[in-house]
């Protein structure tokens, strides 16, 4: 297959299929290592997911209980209760939703506070950077003014030296 790619030819279909098969094998191997169970265990640590699991368990328990004639249940062919305790299911699911809503609201409030803090930090960083930039520019302007003064002073010295040299040359040429 590598030779076909190097020579500019097409990859044979069989080689392409073996690539797909190796990916499938890899995926099957990865899934078979218990990764799914580990992920489920980690997810079940969350309180809301635990409550949802309890609700599901309640549904399964109530739907798989044998019929008790003393409760007025009717026999079915499978021998299971046909009625479900909807009140307890509704109450449990309402509690789960309330907890979830409270949890999300607290997270959103925390995010709002973090956003406000981030905005304040951003503004203060901008102000600090502006002041630093202004200070650097001010120092650069001061340095340039000093250099200009220095150059002006040097120019005056050169002009004086040039006039002295000129007058000396004139005296020497006229004196001969």
Describe the protein's topology.
Layout lengths: L1 H5 L6 H31 L3 H18 L21 H90 L1
Protein name: Grand meiotic recombination cluster protein 2
Organism: Zygotorulaspora mrakii
> Which ranges are low-confidence, i.e. pLDDT below 50, for 5 or more consecutive residues?
1-6
**Helix/strand-derived class?**
mainly alpha
- Number of separate strands: 0
Proportion of beta-strand residues: under 5%
Largest sheet: none
Helix content: over 70%
Radius of gyration of CA atoms, rounded to a whole number: 44 Å
Rounded mean pLDDT is 78
Helix/strand order, N-terminal first: HHHH
Quaternary organisation: single chain
Our measurement of the CA-to-CA distance between the termini, rounded to an integer number of angstroms, reads 100 Å
The rough form would be described as elongated
Number of continuous helical runs = 4
Biased composition (Low complexity): 69-78
Protein name: Grand meiotic recombination cluster protein 2
Region (Disordered): 60-80
Task: Describe, in plain words, how this protein is organized in 3D.
There is one protein chain. The protein has 176 residues and is an all-alpha fold. It has a domain of 43 residues. The protein is 82% helix and 0% strand. The protein is built from four helices and no strands. 0% of the residues are buried. This is Grand meiotic recombination cluster protein 2.
Describe what is shown at a glance.
The protein has 4 helices and no strands. With 176 residues, the chain is an all-alpha fold.
What attributes characterize this protein structure?
176 residues, Grand meiotic recombination cluster protein 2
